[in-house]
Each structure stands twice: as structure tokens, then as C-alpha cells.
Design a protein that fits this description.
The complex is a heterodimer of chains A (570) and B (343).
Chain A: H1 27-31, H2 36-64, H3 75-110, H4 119-141, H5 166-193, H6 206-238, H7 251-285, H8 292-305, H9 321-349, H10 358-381, H11 383-389, H12 393-423, E1 425-426, H13 429-455, H14 472-502, E2 504-505, E3 544-547, E4 552-555, H15 562-565
Antiparallel strand pairs in A: 1-2, 3-4
Helix pairs in contact in A: 2-3, 2-4, 2-14, 3-5, 3-6, 3-7, 3-12, 4-5, 5-6, 6-7, 6-8, 7-8, 7-9, 7-10, 7-12, 8-9, 9-10, 10-12, 10-13, 12-13, 13-14
Chain B: H1 32-67, H2 69-75, H3 81-107, H4 110-141, H5 153-159, H6 168-178, H7 185-192, H8 213-228, H9 234-237, H10 275-307, H11 317-342
Helix pairs in contact in B: 1-2, 1-10, 1-11, 2-10, 3-4, 3-11, 4-10, 6-7, 10-11
The chains are: A mainly alpha (570), B mainly alpha (343).
Chain lengths: 570, 343
Amino acid sequence: MTTLDTGQMQKPDLAPRDNYLTHTRGAWSWLFTLDHKRIGIMYLVCVLSAFFVAGIFALLVRTQLLTPEGTIMGQDDYNQAFTLHGAIMVFLVIIPSIPAALGNFVLPIMLGAKDVAFPRLNLFSFWLWVSGALFFVLALVSGGLDTGWTFYTPYSTDPNSAMGGMIPAVTGAFVLGFSSIFTGMNFIVTIHRLRPPGMTWFRMPLFLWGIYATAILQVMATPVLGITLALLAVERAFGIGIFNPELGGDPVLYQHFFWFYSHPAVYIMILPGMAIISDLIAVHSHRHIFGYKFIAYSSIAIALFSFLVWGHHMFTSGQSPLVNVIFSAITFSVAIPSAIKVFNWLATMYKGSISWNTPMLYAMGFIFIFTIGGLTGLHLGTLATDIHLHDTYFVVAHFHYVMMGSALIAMIGGLHHWWPKITGKMYNENWGRFAFALVFIGFNVTFFTQFMLGSQGMPRRYATYPADAGFQIYHVISSIGSYILAVGFFVTAGYLLQSMFGGRRAPANPWGGRSLEWQCSSPPPHDNFSETPTVGDCYDFSVLEWNEDEQGYVWRSDIPHPGEEEPGGH
Amino acid sequence: MSQLEIQPDSHGTDHGHDHDHPDHLGHHWENSKQQFEAGKLGMWLFLATEVLLFGGLFVAYSVWRGNHPEIFQYGSQFLDTFWGALNTGVLLVSSMTMAMAVTFAARGNRKGIVICLVLTLMGAAGFMVIKYIEYSHKFHEGFLPGFSFYEEPSASHLWLPLEQEHDQDVAHSTLETEAHNTAFAHETTARDEMPLPPPTAEPSVVPAAGTGPEGLTTNELALETAEFAVFLPPSVIGNLENQGPELDFAEHHEPGEEPHLPHPLQDPDRPPNAQKFFTIYFLMTGLHGIHVIIGGFVILWLLLLTLRGRFSRGYYTPVDLGGLYWHIVDVIWIFLFPLFYLI
């Protein structure tokens, strides 16, 4: 029975009870669990481990660039370092981070469901992720990988350039793609078929809209990556001329195929971030979300637009000027739904009673960083400026503002938001704020300088740079920023882990959220809800009040709970 | 497990496996109908991903055909419409028996399901047998693109020490190992003393004495390049005129085979990059063949479940979904057949 279903159950229930963490014991019960919550936790642990590894590569890259001649690596090692940083971050970290880790945990609970539609597929998808990661390890030990995360031909097909790790890495990305497809399928079906009574499409929390739009992208775009990478592997293994021009292949066809997936993949990364932020802003401002339908529709609009803009990665590839103009125009149109979201978030905060909790800080940091990342995207979507900025640090800074500063920041914000629900423990809020400051400052110091570097002509992916070009000062500032960022993440890891052992017991609803996950205990019981809960407006926070005993929000005693009149299932 | 009749309105309000919550129903579903519809939606989404997976190859086909129609015109001569049409028929019939199996499942007729699934399985097997006949014929003729077809830089990378990569002789020796339908492969192999890929097939065609090899071995490099690297860029193919007398492959074919076209390796009228036709042909039909094999295993699994009595009028979701998968495999072939064999 959930804590808040009836007015009589306002007392905090501190007695130890059966929850999903204690339901069964032993490693086996975790590794082969069908419980979406445990699968989400396993994803979380794995994704964060991969984040650590890829972060180390990032620090190596930044350290290398401290001096014009490079400090610690030769050219080849540098190529491998940035390739592995990019490939791991994209395929192993950012794409699965929010949907597979947090989404898996939260989505069914938000729907009042006991599990996702296909629990076995969910577990299979997790193990596909693990095998994909193993293939990347295999790529590391079998000669490495130096093509950049895009596996561009002819680097990836040229035997003088591509290394022994190509086929394992490509196989790994293929397998990870299917992990992503199955997660997406699972979420689409779950949202379609397992919504509780009363939850119409437009009563869903916006997190679900964002995850739904993401899932569509995962299902529709990833197969194209799959076949592209399969072709690449076949070409490399058997010497068939598909993309290699020496054999009559077409390298630009590879770029088209790759970006047909990888542009939507950028939105696979950012849409869940936006989804989290929409909920965080509303809950921590204690104010009804502004422009619900606009935010929901703009998620779908971004998903649809994302299929039509892949050519803007290829303005300099020699495609026809007319095609360039069309792709440029559609690229600009993506700014419209993105801006709609930003304005709606700001309007939600306006006159809200904002709690300066760590998740809210991350949400506001997201808005700041995403706005910069989005607007600099317009520079790159403009044909004339793109010729100048193409393949410079401006591009690097732009996509880090969106993929790291937005998507990952949102993920960390969401992690803090749902941490009490996941672990049943509160983390230390002051440490949280301090770590946020480090992350926010470190991030901007690292990447804002790269806009300047790029606009002055520093190309990306170079292990060295001329000493007299004035680049060094920016590189040094950027590297220092990356160290601050790293410290911020270590502090975050420290207090989060500490909270699991020494943290205060979390109430069911520490932030005052109204979506269904805050109606079940923290941590949730094995089956989430013993009976399907009834749903109201999940952004109407006026029915909740702070309860000092519980140290959390409870249903207001003077308002009848919607479930009270007709307790479902009895 | 005995067959269970499903109460259409059974509610799983308590999450245990109580009497109104049949075994096949997951604990998170309200009733069988909800589970069935979810399974169906999931399957359709999966089929969409399959279409997109093949979509990449169809796009590659369109781009290549649009840019080089002559390659496709030339290459399709080597496909046998008879086998293709026969395979189309086999798949269509198997699709029909699959649909009948689903209908029998909906009626709860276990015997009908078994018969139809066995027929479908035979269709899948028949398709693969015919595919095997077609493929082995083409392998035999040396149409398989890749290492066995032309000089390929990554081939030398894989088989030879790195520092020798640019050595002309090295590239050269790689060429020859693949040229298994000419006689002098063995001579040059011995001469080069390079580590070589495992021999793939023994020479299938031995040219008559005096028709070429002898002349070529004296003239070595240029001529051999012309002989084997016929699928290299056109600049290289300029050497074709130097080639010795054309080999009459017709003499070396099995009796009773269809009218003999000049083998691509010896055809001076062959358009440049002709191997791209075989590349896309093998890729698309190969991926389809893999799907047929997977489909075969799915049908086998359904057959086993049926024999164990897992299905009933109230629960036959796997049969239905397996049927959908088999139909998409069929539909993809319906597109492949005209694209390669007919137009």
C-alpha cells in the first residue's frame, strides 16, 4: 500500500519494510532480475562507470593540449584518446544515460505500472549494453581505434589509418544500437498500453512525453546506424567496395547514412534531458508547468525535425548548394520548438516559489547552458559561417554545450531529483550545491574558451598547435576548467555514495512532486503499486503541503484525495 | 501445461498468480487482451526497425543504380530468373501456410497449426536450398566480391607485414591468390614467398594452353594487373587492351548450363566497377537469407510450443507475432526479386 493514498496514512512509516532493494538477495537476483528498477540501477552503475572511463580520456586530451607541442602523448595516442572519449561518451554513456538508466527506473512508476511492457526484453537490452561495452574493451586491446567517434570513411576503411580495433568497435556500436532500439520499443509500448485510468496523453508528466519522443527516435533512426555499421564491418572484413572510393565505393554515402542516424541521435541525447528539466522546473518551483501542450508538442516536433537535418553535418562535403540551403533552413526551424521549451520553463519559474535544491540548480544551469549551446548551433547551421567554423573548436564547444552541458547536466539533475526515491536516502544538500557550483563553473570555463579558440581557427582533433597563434592561453584555461569539472564530479560521487550509508531516510515525497513516483514509498516496493493508482493533474501542486514530521510533502488534509471516493480495485 | 481458456474480463488486481491470472499472463498486465495488444504493437515496432534496417540497403541500391545504371544492367544478366521466381513462389506459399497457421491458432485447432507450421518450415528450408544453389553457382564462378575479386588494400594489411604494404609485389601477390579461376596463380604464389590467405578454392577453370597464361607470365606485372585488377578504377583498366586472347569460358562450363556470357573477368565490355552489382546483390539477399534462417528458427520454436500445447484460443500471441515476422521476411523478398532479377 502506498503512503499517500489515503488521508489516514500521513504518518511517516519508518518501519523497515519490503522494498525493491530488499525484496530478494544475492548477485543472481540482480543480474537476472526482471524488475525495471533493478535493471535501471544496473544501467546507472554501468553508465556511470563508462562515464568515468571516458572522462579520464577527456582529461588526457585536455592535459595533452596544455602546451603547443603536447605534453603526454604522441599523435597516434592522442587520436585514440579523443576517439575513445567520443565513442564511449556517445554510445555507452549519453544515449543510454537518461532513457535506459533513469527512464527505466522512473517511467513505469510514473505510469503507475508494475513494470515495463516487456521485462525480459528490458533485461536483454541491458545485457546487450554490457556486450557492447565488452566489444569496446576488445577494440581497446586489439589495436585501438583512431577514426573519431564517427568512424568516417576512408579513415575506417583505409588499412594505413584504421586500426585493429575497428571491427570490434563497430560491432560494439551495432550491439549498443540494438540495446537502444529495444529500450525504445519497450517504452513506446509501455506508454501506449500501460497508462493508468485517468492518465490521458495530455495528463502524462512531461518526462514521459520527452521519453516517448526519444523512444520514437531510437526505434526509427538506430536501425539505419545498424546497417551502416554492418556495411562498414563487412567492407573492412571482406574488402568489398561499399564506402571506400578506391574500390568504387562512395564515402559520402557513408556520411549520409551515418548522420541519418547520428543527427537524430543528438536528439536522443537532448530530448530526455529536456524531459527531465520540464519536470524539475515545475516541481522545484512549486508552480504548474506553463504551456504544457506546447512543451509536449515541441518534443514531438523536435523528434520529427531531427530526421530532416542530417545534411547540416555535411555542408563542406560537396553536396549540392541547393541541398545545403534546404538543410540549413530546416536546421533553423529546430530552434523554434527548442526555444518554445526554454520560454515555457522560464515562464514556469516566473512567480514560482523556487526551492534552491540541487536538482533545481542543475535545471537552471541546464537552461543557461542549453541556450548558449542552442544559439551557437545557429552559427553552424548558417552556411557562410559554417565554412569558417567547420571542424574547429567552435563545433567542439557547441556540441559539448548541448551533449555534455545540457544532456549530462540534466541527467545529473535528474539523478539528484530521484536519488531519494532510488536509494531511500537524502544526500547532503550543501555539498550538492557546492558540487553544482564546481561543475557549472568548470564546464563553462572549459568550453566557453573553446568557442573563442574555434572562431580564431583552431581545428579540432589536432594533437599539437602552433605556438605563435595565440591558442595556448585558451587551451590552458580550458584544461584548468576541465580539472575543476572533474573535481566537481568526484565531489558529487563522494556525497552521493556517502548518503547511501549515512544519509537521512528519505520521505516518500521530499520535493513536492505530484507525478505518481512520489506516491509510492522511497524506495518503492517490489511491485511499485499494489493497485493501479488514480491520476489527477500531475502539475497541480496546490493539493500538497509540507509535513514537518515526515520531512516531506503530503496530501493536504483539507482536500479529499481523488482515490478516496472510489478506492480502485476493491 | 494444459490449455487454458481465458476469461476476457479477468482482472489481475492482486499481483500474485491467483486463479484468474493465467500462467502466460505477465504479472504487470491487467488481462490477456492488454498483453496481446502490447505484444502486437511491440512486434509492429520491431518490424518497422527491420524495414529501416533494409531501408539503408535499398537506399544504397537506389543511389548506385541511379549513378551507374549500366552496372546493374550488366550484372543482372548473371542472375537466373527461374530460380528467383521459384523462390518467390516458395516464399509466397509459405506465407500463406503461416497465415493459415495463425487462423488455426485463433480457432484453437492444434493439428492445423502443426501442419501449417511444418509446411512453412519446409518453405523456409526450400528457399534456403534454392539460395544455396544460386550462391554456390556464383561462388564457383568467382562472382563473390571482396578479397577474391580484385586488389584490395586492406587485404594486404590483413595478411602481410605492415612495412611491405606499399610494395608492388605484395599487392600483386594478393591479387593472384584470389584469382583462382586462372592457372598461373600457383606459379606466382610460389615465387612471391609471401604469407598468403588460406587458399579458398582450387582453380575451377583451366585455360587451354597457349591462350594466355604463358604470355602473361613473361610480361608479368602490367598484364597480370590487367587480368586480375579488372575492377580497379578505369585508369587501371586502360591496360585491358594488352590482354591476351579472350578465354572462352563457355567451353569450360558444365554441359546443360544456360547460354554463356563472357565471364566478367574476361569481358572487355564490362562497365567499370561491375562488382558493385554483386556487392549489393550479396549484401541484400544475404541479409535477407539471414532473416529467413532466423524466421525458420522462430517457426521451429512455435512448432515446439504448439506440440507442448502452449496455445489455445485465448492465447496464441507468439504464433501471431511469429507470423508477422515471417510475412515481413516475405515482403522484403517481394521487393528484392524484381529489383535484382527482373528490372
